[in-house]
Amino acid sequence: MLLPDACTIHSGYTARGRLEAAEGGGVLAIQLRDISADGFIHPERLTRVPLDDLPDRYFVRPGDVVFRSRGERNTASVIDKRFREPALAVLPLLVLRPNIDVVLPEYLAWAINQPPAQRHFDLAARGTNIRMIPRSSLDDLDLEIPDIGTQEKIVAIDALAEQERALAILVAETRRKMLSMILAERANRLRPATRQERTSK
């Protein structure tokens, strides 16, 4: 299924220069820098900017998906339930609003982040210094979209796999710290006694 058949696609807001933080009020803004390497967006870390009366299409809510159209990582992220108010998506972010009768937001982001879609973007990428993905490459992106029940299972299994990965990293880091402590203790026992230590015996 072509991506436009599964969701609507809108460009993010085009900022006329640097967006400064609002001294009071304003709207939440999601910029490229606000998306972590693993694709998460933390609402509490977003900046408010002094912009008013902007078209609704620039704002994202829980259930929407944002796509990074510029940079080395051209992946999608879901706007989850932690967002308690609409947030402004700023270019080069694109807004994908899923047709919920066709595709789950979590599955849509997952499918876009998989190797087949990423290879599609690799072929379409432009720019030498800064990698850019043209809007047309999203229009002709073909995704495998099964029934909703199958999507739910895939999303659940992927979430469990991510938890397993995080736990494996935590276990490895804990093991490394314990080993460092053991080695440091052993090194301390084996070091030659200082003159002060020898004379105090």
Task: Describe this structure as you would to a colleague.
Helix content is 37%, strand content 15%. The strands form two sheets. Strands 1-8-5-6 form a four-stranded antiparallel sheet. It has a four-stranded mixed sheet with strand order 3-2-7-4, with no helix packed on it. The protein is extended. With 201 residues, the chain is α+β, with helices and mostly antiparallel strands.
Q: Would you spell out the secondary-structure blueprint of this structure?
A:
Blueprint: H1 3-6, E1 7-11, E2 27-30, E3 47-49, E4 59-60, E5 65-68, E6 76-78, E7 87-89, E8 93-98, H2 105-112, H3 115-124, H4 135-139, H5 148-190, H6 195-199
Organism: Plastorhodobacter daqingensis
Keywords: DNA-binding, Endonuclease, Hydrolase, Nuclease, Restriction system
GO molecular function: endonuclease activity
Short description, anyone?
This protein is of the alpha+beta class. Helices cover 37% and strands 15% of the residues.
Instruction: Please report the distance between the alpha carbons of the first and last residues.
Output: 81 Å
Describe the strand arrangement of the main beta sheet, using strand numbers: 1-8-5-6
Biggest sheet statistics: 4 strands, antiparallel
Helix content: 25-40%
State the order of secondary-structure elements, H for helix, E for strand: HEEEEEEEEHHHHH
GO molecular function, one term: endonuclease activity
Protein name: Restriction endonuclease subunit S
Keywords: DNA-binding, Endonuclease, Hydrolase, Nuclease, Restriction system
Organism: Plastorhodobacter daqingensis
